């Protein structure tokens, strides 16, 4: 496996191995909602989720983006995204990323039309669809099968926001589905031969390092294609922000985050593609941790530390122990102290 000089198998490395060049992601807002927000399961959303449903980076919403007729014309958002990338891109192709809210939650005809709009663009290599495992019914799976037939040269990826395998944390963050729902969806997606990328949050309230690593080891056995390792951000207008301001949840220091991250990477199967190692909260609504807004610094420090300690993805995958790793530090910043009683409902 060629990691192209990095100590882990990044998405960039995968793109170069597969397409011979970098692919650029264009985040999209398809005007959908989420069952965890529209009252079907809950109306408050996950406790960390911003009002934009994690779609603040959608091409039509970025400063400097040319106005599009409403946020939902996928073709126009793609055009706007390409324009913004014009100066920095070296490759010729893109990934259309359906990011905001739950992108399989809507009438199937509408979903078919938005996915097709993206897949029909000649310079779109494939689409990545962020959704929930409880929103992948039979009709949606049929739609994927027909799209795969119609666009055999393009990929369709599904991104699932699992965040943790631990039911008590899932309840606390109001994820709204049990782990069994995730494993059933994984089975269906495997059968349909659709690669899955799983989102995991580092630093969830009440989770120890061992709990986090249990999530990573579980995912190693699920046959996932990729993973996004993301820091827990405290964003404005979320229930998590209320708890944070009341001193009821702490956030990770950069040292602690990098320590967790290195262990996750060392424990991860060497074949799993790491699509993200930071996750940048939108600066205008980011409350904490403030160090995370300097993404370049976080990435440089991670690479430097991994190099110095000779840590590499999969190093502890077989052994299951971290005896070979030289990592210390596990510090929180802020005064917050988490207790499971600090639920947002109390
Ligand atoms: S499932 Fe996703 S979009 Fe829905 S509330 Fe949770 S984080 Fe937000």
From TrEMBL:
InterPro entries: ELP3 (IPR039661), Elp3/MiaA/NifB-like_rSAM (IPR006638), Radical_SAM_C (IPR032432), rSAM (IPR007197), rSAM_horseshoe (IPR023404), rSAM_sf (IPR058240), YhcC-like (IPR005911). Residues 18-271 form the Radical SAM core domain. It comes from the Bacteria. Its cofactor is [4Fe-4S] cluster. Keywords: 4Fe-4S, Iron, Iron-sulfur, Metal-binding, S-adenosyl-L-methionine. GO terms for molecular function: 4 iron, 4 sulfur cluster binding; catalytic activity; metal ion binding. Pfam families: Radical_SAM, Radical_SAM_C. Coiled coil: none annotated. NCBIfam families: TIGR01212 family radical SAM protein. This is Coproporphyrinogen III oxidase. It comes from Eisenbergiella tayi. The lineage of its organism: Bacteria, Bacillati, Bacillota, Clostridia, Lachnospirales.
């Amino acid at each position: 496996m060629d990691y192209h000089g990095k100590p882990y198998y990044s998405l960039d490395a995968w793109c170069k191995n597969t397409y011979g060049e970098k692919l650029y992601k264009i985040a999209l807002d398809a005007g959908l909602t989420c069952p965890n927000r529209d009252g079907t399961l809950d109306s408050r959303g996950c406790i960390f989720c911003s009002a934009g449903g994690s779609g603040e980076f959608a091409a039509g919403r970025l400063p400097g983006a040319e106005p599009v007729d409403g946020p939902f014309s996928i073709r126009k958002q793609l055009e706007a995204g390409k324009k913004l990338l014009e100066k920095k891109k070296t490759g010729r192709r893109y990934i259309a990323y359906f990011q905001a809210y739950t992108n399989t939650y809507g009438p199937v005809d509408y979903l078919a039309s938005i996915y097709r709009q993206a897949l029909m663009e000649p310079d779109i290599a494939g689409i990545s669809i962020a959704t929930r495992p409880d929103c992948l019914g039979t009709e949606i799976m049929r739609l994927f099968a027909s799209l795969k037939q119609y666009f055999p040269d393009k990929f369709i990826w599904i991104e699932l926001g699992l965040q943790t395998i631990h039911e008590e944390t899932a309840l606390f963050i109001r994820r709204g589905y049990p782990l069994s729902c995730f494993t059933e969806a994984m089975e269906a997606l495997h059968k349909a031969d659709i690669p899955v990328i799983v989102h995991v949050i580092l630093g969830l309230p009440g989770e120890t390092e061992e709990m986090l690593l249990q999530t990573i080891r579980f995912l190693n056995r699920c046959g996932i294609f990729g993973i996004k390792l993301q820091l827990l951000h405290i964003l404005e207008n979320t229930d998590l922000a209320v708890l944070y301001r009341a001193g009821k949840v702490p956030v990770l220091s950069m040292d602690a985050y990098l320590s967790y991250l290195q262990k996750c990477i060392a424990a991860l199967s060497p074949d799993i593609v790491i699509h993200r190692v930071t996750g940048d909260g939108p600066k205008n609504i980011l409350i904490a941790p403030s160090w995370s807004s300097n993404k370049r610094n976080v990435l440089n420090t991670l690479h430097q530390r991994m190099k110095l300690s000779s840590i590499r993805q999969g190093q502890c995958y077989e052994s299951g122990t971290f005896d070979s790793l030289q990592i210390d530090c596990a510090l929180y910043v802020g005064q917050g102290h988490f207790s499971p009683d600090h639920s947002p409902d109390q």
